[in-house]
Design brief:
The complex is a heterodimer of chains A (330) and B (236).
Chain A lengths: L2 E5 L2 E2 L2 E2 L1 H17 L2 E9 L14 E2 L8 H10 L4 E7 L7 H15 L3 E5 L5 H12 L2 E9 L5 E3 L5 E2 L7 E7 L13 E6 L8 E8 L8 E5 L7 H13 L3 E4 L1 H5 L19 E5 L11 E5 L12 E3 L3 H14 L1
Parallel strand pairs in A: 1-4, 1-7, 4-6, 6-12, 7-11, 8-11, 14-15, 14-16, 16-17, 17-18
Antiparallel strand pairs in A: 2-3, 5-12, 8-9, 9-10
Helix pairs in contact in A: 3-4, 5-7
Chain B lengths: L2 H10 L4 E7 L8 H11 L9 E7 L1 H14 L2 E6 L6 H15 L1 E7 L7 H11 L2 E12 L2 E8 L2 E8 L2 E5 L19 E3 L8 H4 L15 H8 L10
Parallel strand pairs in B: 1-2, 1-4, 2-3, 3-9, 4-8, 5-8
Antiparallel strand pairs in B: 5-6, 6-7
Helix pairs in contact in B: 2-3, 4-5
Classes of the chains: A alpha/beta (330), B alpha/beta (236).
Chain lengths: 330, 236
Amino acid sequence: MAAVLVHVDLVGERPDASSLVALAAGRHVASSWGATLYAAVVVHDPKHANVTSQHDDVAATTMPSVPGLAEAESTLARAGADKVVIAVSRGPVAPLWSVVGNAWRGVVDHLRPRLVLFGADAPSAAELGPRTAARIGARLLLRARATGIDDVELRDRDGGYARVGDGGAAVAMIGRAPAIEAVPDDCDVDVVVLAMPGSRDDRIELVTTSPAEIAHATGAVVVLGDDLATDARVTAGAQRLARLLNADLVGGAAAARSGAVGNGAVVDKTTPLSPELVVTVGGAQIDVAGATSVIKIGASPSTRIAAVDGVLAGSAETALAELARKLEAS
Amino acid sequence: MTDNEATARLTITPGSRVLLWLGNQGPARSIRWLDGALKTVAKFDPDKKGRAIAFAAGAASWLDLASDRARHAGVASAGLQTDLSLDYLGWAQIVAAVSRHLGAGTILVDEASRQERWIEVAAIAELLDAAQLTHVVKLAPDKDVIHASRIAGRELQTVRVRGNAVLGVRIAGAPMDEYPTPMPSKTMQRMKLEMLGLDPVVLGHRAQPPRSHEPKKTVERIAEHLVVHLAPREAR
């Protein structure tokens, strides 16, 4: 039977929310394709026997002692996994290929999945997703969603897709999936514990971690134009949209003066932003050349941004309200 | 830098080089990130001995622009003129072949100029069995070590890199609204697929049709565009 494999990041002791969206997409696909859905978590237990092991193959092993792991297994079972794979890494886990790549590669080589899914916003997705795809020579879908009822397929915005009848493997970073039917709390799930060979790649050494500046944001950013920064309704609409998208709300000096954005969220037209998504509200004077996707709301039709993905001219207040309603209902 | 100097640098300097992959198309919106990537790779070659090389593929006009900006940054350039339209793995095969051909151990990739480029970082690294690092926002070479800072969600990770590695950089240059129209380049080292040991027919298996790009103009279509960015309900 074909395997659909979902990589699940743990944030603290809980499965990452974006990984669970990928798992929901995986459930729809696996049910439609007649595949087995595996949810795999890479963990580390410094006292586990695998830490000092010298074996070169993936091997069954004993359950590691990792805080919250039993609850995480239960969460993954309720989220639709047929089997939960606990991959025991020899080194501590961090969202870098150099740190968990060897362990993750062991899981992929062991299961030989037809489809591998990552939550598009999961901590490890950017480092592990494309490398996994390259390793198995797969098509790669970015920000894909599961669509269809009986014949479920994955589609991305650029026209890429993965269907049941396709030849070859695919890797998808999942942005959205329909909710799955409720699974009973006491549902049973197979748990497979594997000791992963190999250690970290010493060519990359993680030294420190600190909060990033907003100018370096790689996710979503909503930019409030100075011309609308004192309009309370527009500001509220921009904040609502930012909440829905888990985006940073930024603006110029006028937006900071009006209290619409915090002092740490002030940008001007020389600030080089390169997030995945920028939504500008009003006449925002910013440099979005590095953004992957740009949406303009309430801007004058004459305002020009090259390679923009969407424009809603007219009242920003109305457009923001309608957009938020649509997104909340989806 | 003269044309002859640039060509000489590519041929006289032995040892491991640093290759900057500029992509198969020009920047989508501005050359600011292209300039930033070039300025970054120039740090690896402070004495301008040809250790840093920028490489672009695609149409002649894009190669001219890439070469022109490289010349401004004091970086040698190489180019492959082709009308192939490939997926991430197809371009990675070409970059991997070029890096072997030029003897490059460190490869930088300009992640920000076009959206599809960052996924090529991992593919190039996989083909070369190199370490990888995406989303690098600061980078400082220091003898055999590279100090880099990368973005992981809302965190900044500081790392040290040793040995062969592929690094995706998103480092901006100075804002620039206008620049002179580049002239056909004499300094760029021209490459052919054959000299890289690549067969266009085989590469054709990784062909990907160009995607259309029409701006969406209704609330429904923009909501559909944004829905894949929605935060999971529990995270809002």
